[in-house]
Amino acid sequence: MTTLLKPKDLARLHAAAFRESRPWGTEEFEALLASKHCFCVGDSHGFAIGRLIAQESELLTIAVDPVSQGKGHGRLLLQHYHDEAQARGANTLFLEVAKDNTRALNLYKTMSYEVISVRAGYYKRTTGTPVDALIMQLKL
What we know:
It catalyses: N-terminal L-alanyl-[ribosomal protein bS18] + acetyl-CoA = N-terminal N(alpha)-acetyl-L-alanyl-[ribosomal protein bS18] + CoA + H(+). There is one protein chain. Strands 1-2-3-4-6-5 form a six-stranded mixed β-sheet, sandwiched between helices. It is of the alpha+beta class.
């Protein structure tokens, strides 16, 4: 599943997947991929980027092309992220997700993530509306 995606490809996929919030730019992906702590799994349909510090891995973002959404690709990506994080020594995974992102929230819950905290008004939609971020965790 892992294909070497270029930062511009990641930015394009991210922009397509996150139409209601600010997408990440090419420069942001370049900086992440240059970090020795970050790793990326994915292909032309989507990707997941994680960061490993000590034995914790944070899912920084996961994006699936809208054409591929609802076909199990997100679940497959998330499983590959879990496998890669564990292979790198992680025993705990965490992420944050917008409270109104029901598709992602349902995916994380079905994969045994649990809400451990809330960041009130953390995200801003393109309309200016604030949305809470849910911090979720999975122990491997």
